[in-house]
Specification:
By secondary structure, this protein is mainly alpha-helical. About 70% of the residues lie in helices and about 0% in strands. The protein is built from nine helices and no strands. The longest helix is centred in the C-terminal third of the chain and has 25 residues. It is extended. The relative contact order is 0.06.
Length: about 190
């Protein structure tokens, strides 16, 4: 806590020194105080709006908080400006893989391989991509065999327009559906 207080004092004395904000944010991250770390990175962006390191660190914090949709959105914005940003490509591919979105993960791992054909990171990318191909092959086989896929909740469920028919969420709408069905039957009896 004394280090945090010292850096807060230093920032008050030298409010334009970006390195102080980064160090303070890192201290907060090490203490799992992610909201305070986010505040420091946002302060960096207020002083330097195009600071890519602050942007990536914000995305990394959202990953730590398991807010994959916010992290993905940030990494996608980075890729719009810098399409060959290896860290962002890898992070998005990793997020999609964790969510079970193997086709999307494959797309980003393949982009990453095109950029970094020979490097230490490419070896890991090839291994992970091989695992994804295996999973996609299994999924394709299950589709051919009319396999019944269990629902898989994700951070995107809140935005989906199919929740009323989704096996994962339709129970939330069952009573409303039953009430509308009863009303419909009563209307038919009247006719």
């Amino acid at each position: 806590q004394s280090a945090i207080n010292a850096y807060i004092s230093a920032i008050n004395l030298y409010p334009n020194r970006l390195d102080l904000y980064f160090i303070l944010a890192e201290l907060y991250e090490n203490l799992n105080q992610f909201d305070q770390a986010l505040e420091q990175y946002q302060a960096v962006l207020a002083l330097s709006p195009t600071n890519s390191q602050a942007v990536k660190n914000i995305a990394k914090i959202y990953l730590e908080k398991k807010d994959y949709s916010k992290a993905t959105n940030i990494y996608l914005k980075v890729l719009k400006e810098r399409p060959q940003d290896q860290a962002s490509l890898f992070a998005i591919a990793d997020i999609y893989q964790k969510q079970g979105n193997y086709a999307e993960a494959r797309e980003y791992y393949e982009k990453l391989i095109q950029i970094e054909y020979f490097s230490d990171m490419s070896i890991k990318t090839y291994v992970v991509l091989g695992e994804i191909y295996d999973k996609l092959e299994v999924l394709e086989e299950k589709i051919k065999d009319n396999y019944n896929f269990p629902p898989t909740p994700s951070g995107l469920c809140d935005y989906c327009g199919h929740r009323q028919i989704c096996p994962m969420w339709r129970h939330l709408y069952a009573q409303k559906h039953a009430e509308s069905q009863i009303q419909g039957e009563e209307e038919l009896k009247k006719i």
